[in-house]
Amino acid sequence: MGRGSAVKCDLLDLGRMHSFQELQLAIAYWATWLLIATLAAVVWLVWWLVPRLARWVPIGVTALVVAFISTLYQRVEIANGAMRLEMHPFTARVIRLAEIRSAEVRTYRGVAEYGGWGIRFGSPGTAYTSYGDRGVQLVLTSGEQVLIGSQRAEELLHAIEQAKRPEGQPSPPRP
Q: Residue 66's CB: how many other CB atoms inside 10 A?
């Protein structure tokens, strides 16, 4: 699967044609294993250091936190003239492709520009990111700037360009 947790999904889903779909887990696979190792260390420490009845409370809380983090993901989908951004389980947003004035791949600094990853609102605009430092910067016709983090940023940009192109118009050559 390569670096990180980007999952390349089928381009045909329940009869709807997608020009792009990407699912990113909230944390990279290596970080998931780090969380599991942390949970194991907490269980071991609690088991030996905490009195018998109270030991299940920190173990349970830690397990719930790990379980919750493992349910977080970001999905970007382009289909039917729109881009759907989902930050599960918090929010989903639909941007019509006609609302996109410009789009470009860029490297961003999650902490410095937006204060971290996730759904972020900063001076540069709104960011929907899971992890990493690559994404597609959109400028909407309203002037709003939206950054979409992606492990496949070039593919996402190409899909936006393709989907915005009028039918029958040839693709411009890719550099």
A: 15
For residues 137 and 154, the answer to whether their CB atoms sit within 8 Å is: no
Instruction: Encode pLDDT of 81-136 as tens digits.
Output: 999 999 888 889 999 999 999 999 999 988 888 777 788 887 788 989 887 889 99
Helix (H) or strand (E) holding 49: helix 29-49
**94 and 46 fall within a common domain:** no
User: Can you state the percent helix, strand and coil of the chain, rounding each to 5?
Assistant: 30, 35, 30
Q: Is the peptide bond before 58 cis (omega within 30 degrees of 0)?
A: no
Which tokens in the block code for residue 24? 């990113």
Range of the domain at 152: 6-26+72-164
Nearest to 99 by CA among 126, 138, 148: 138
CA distance 31 to 66: 11
